[in-house]
Specification:
Elements (H helix, E strand, L loop, with lengths): L3 E5 L6 H13 L3 E6 L5 E3 L5 E3 L2 E2 L10 E4 L4 H6 L5 H11 L4 E4 L4 H4 L8 E2 L3 H9 L3 E2 L4 E4 L2 E4 L5 H13 L1
Parallel strand pairs: 1-2, 1-6, 2-5, 6-7, 7-11, 8-9
Antiparallel strand pairs: 3-4, 10-11
Length: 172
């Protein structure tokens, strides 16, 4: 059965960390929905990729989606700057309900705001690992880490492994 995957996104995302998993998800017959600050606004990646926001975070309901994708780049830092904490609250739903969460590079930063990383094992780009550890996660240096419903990777070079595990979670 086709699944809907929410993608939390802001400007300065790492282009390939959106486009590659998004393509893998859609090629497997699933749908992606871009969620950002304002519906119909354009967000721009670090290397010029332009994407239109489908649904505003104010209107997005996590229960409408089967999984969550968090691309890296500077997007996660911008999302965490939301004064109302809506992105962290949105992401928390997936961890609490044991629904698939896919986060690469800086993407796991958004999960810090869920306060639900205690006892979870994950990976991320080097410069956010200490923050994740301080949030209670066990952080390892591997191309992809699967902890139940949580799939994390470090950098674009890990995308093949990351996309393979995304497909397993969505199709398994």
């Amino acid at each position: 059965m086709a699944k809907k995957v929410a993608v939390l996104l802001a400007d300065e995302f790492e282009d390939i960390e959106l486009t590659s998993p998004k393509e893998a998800i859609e090629n497997a017959g699933h749908e992606t929905v871009i969620i950002g600050d304002t519906a119909n606004n354009e967000v721009v990646g670090k290397h010029g990729e332009k994407v239109t926001v489908d649904v505003s975070i104010a209107d997005a309901k996590p229960e409408d989606y089967d999984a969550l994708l968090l691309p890296g780049g500077f997007s996660p830092d911008h999302l965490r700057g939301d004064e109302e904490g809506r992105y962290g609250t949105f992401a928390k739903h997936y961890l609490k309900e044991d629904l698939p969460v896919f986060a690469i590079c800086h993407g796991p930063q958004v999960l810090i705001d869920t306060d639900d990383l205690g006892g979870r094992t994950l990976t991320a780009v080097l410069n956010v690992r200490k923050d994740l550890s301080n949030a209670g996660a066990k952080v390892v240096d591997e191309s992809v880490v699967v902890d139940r419903n949580l799939v994390t990777s470090r950098v674009p070079d890990d995308l093949d492994d990351f996309n393979r595990e995304i497909s397993k979670q969505l199709n398994g």
